[in-house]
Design goal:
There is one protein chain. The two termini are about 35 Å apart. The longest helix is centred in the first third of the chain and has 20 residues. Helix 2 packs across helix 3 and helix 6 runs parallel beside helix 7. The protein has nine helices and 15 strands. Helices cover about 35% and strands about 20% of the residues. With about 350 residues, the chain is an alpha/beta fold. The radius of gyration is 18 Å and the shape is globular. Strands 1, 2, 3, 4, 5, 6, 7, 9, 10, 11, 12, 14 and 15 form a 13-stranded mixed sheet that branches. A two-stranded parallel ribbon has the order 8-13.
């Protein structure tokens, strides 16, 4: 028997349309040099953000993005009933330490770079079901910490391959709430598609786009099959961080699966956050990539009415340093959330 709020096999419908009532982001100096730099709420002067380690800098970025978001909403930390957060590091310690400082009931999320859309999806379910409101959803990453964990310490000075992506130093936060006549929301969640893990045998830890693109295609096709909708019903279909390599593969895979995507409606956060002159190779990546672009670029366009409806789908490569050294391939996952303006 299908659950009453399901549509098809993987898609859920929010009956109470959770509102996005505030958002904020914090980012590093490299990100501030990109085309979105003027829209960030907080910019770190240096990559270490005045902390003793890059890991502590990542904690600070997450913590401050959350605090700014709550300030915008006019809420204190005690006014939030749940916090959903995640990052790329082992045991999602930066998010856990940020939650320790905020003292908000915490649910740790891990979907690699898909964590922001995963958090929105689950946070929306909590709000829609009447289990918590408001709910704080956040995700962050740091270039130096991710390089040390997944590839090489910066001190090695290794040469990056053309398909590699630059992990965004930054964090983004969204505050969800039940509809409130006393507030004016930025946007609202209406539907979401829970992605499945897809593995096409990619083993190159420097080519995340190739690992994630099949999962992104699978989620999009599942959503269109479940709902009967078409890409033309969205102002933008937004991927998290496929970069230039993964974005092209997504178009190829989706076409093969019977759902060709119009290039003019596609957008990738990893290709939006950096200027080509910054030499990020295939583009940006990391949990913070889609989170920062969502806060600084996507939601303002929905709030202003420039866009009416978008499909926001962050993508994650579920690799582990341990399993990679054991010869495992890299699975991918992608979760999609429909975000609409409120009129």
């Amino acid at each position: 028997m299908n659950a009453p709020n399901r549509m098809g096999h993987q898609t859920v419908v929010y009956r109470n349309t959770p509102w996005i009532i505030a958002t904020a982001c914090a980012a590093g100096p490299r990100e501030a040099q990109g085309p979105l730099g003027d829209t960030f709420d907080l910019v770190a002067d240096t990559p270490d953000f005045g902390q003793e380690s890059y890991e502590q800098a990542e904690v600070a970025l997450l913590r401050e993005a959350c605090r700014i978001c709550l300030d915008k909403a006019g809420l204190g930390e005690k006014g939030v009933e749940a916090m959903l957060g995640g990052d790329l590091l082992n045991q999602i310690m930066p998010s856990s330490l940020a939650a320790r400082a905020l003292k908000i009931p915490f649910l740790g999320m891990y979907g690699a770079c898909s964590t922001m859309s995963e958090g929105l999806l689950v946070g929306g379910l909590l709000v829609d079901g009447g289990y918590a409101s408001p709910v704080l959803c956040t995700a962050g990453s740091h270039y130096a910490t991710a390089e040390r964990q997944y590839r090489f310490p910066l001190e090695y000075g290794n040469q990056r391959t053309p398909a590699s992506q630059w992990t965004v130093t930054g964090a983004g936060t969204v505050l969800l709430s039940l509809p409130d006549p006393g507030r004016k929301p930025l946007a609202q969640l209406t539907r979401a598609c829970i992605g499945r893990v897809v593995d096409m045998g990619v083993t190159d830890a420097n080519n995340m786009g190739a690992a994630m693109a099949p999962a992104a295609a699978a989620t999009l096709c599942a959503y269109f099959d479940d709902t009967g909708e078409t890409p033309e019903q969205f102002d933008r279909i937004i991927t998290g961080d496929l970069g230039s390599v993964g974005s092209e593969l997504l178009l190829e895979w989706s076409g093969k699966m019977g759902h060709p995507l119009p290039r003019e409606r596609m957008m990738d956060c990893g290709l939006t956050i950096y200027d080509p002159a910054q030499d990020s190779h295939a583009g940006g990546s990391g949990c913070g990539c889609s989170a920062v672009v969502l806060s600084s670029f996507i939601l303002p366009r929905l709030q202003s009415g420039e866009w009416r409806r978008v499909l926001f789908m962050a993508t994650g490569a579920l690799l582990s340093p341990t399993t990679s050294m054991q010869g495992e391939t890299i699975p991918g996952v992608a979760h999609a959330v429909v975000i609409e303006g409120v009129r």
